[in-house]
Amino acid sequence: MAKPCEACGIASYYAAEHPPGVCEDCAQLLGTHEVSPPCRRNMPCRRCNHDVLIRAHPQQHVQGGSTSLCATYSVERNTNGTTVTPRGRLEAYICRQCGFVEWYCDDPTAIPIGPAYMTELVDNGPGTPYR
Length: 131
Description:
Elements: E1 3-4, E2 12-13, H1 24-30, E3 53-56, E4 59-62, E5 65-68, E6 70-78, E7 81-95, E8 101-105
Antiparallel strand pairs: 1-2, 3-7, 4-5, 6-7, 7-8
């Protein structure tokens, strides 16, 4: 059964399409996607101990729609064209009381490392001087 879209309130969507409650046009414009399980343990704000947090999947508006904020992107070229894939999607936890924000990454092992990706490993393991 069709229901109004939660984003625009006008278009209809069907339960099997896109994220629940979002029509096809809004899903493309807002860059909605299936969300992974929470990256943060369920606990109060680390700064003020408030119990209510907002879990957000930050987006960046680009021409024609939105895309998830992520650590970097990988590029794959083949005979079918070029595919750009987000790596290390970011999610934020925002305290509803004090506004403190914690950032987490959904799959840090999938983030490519190197100058082409503007990423580098910083190893603070044993024997590394504290800076």
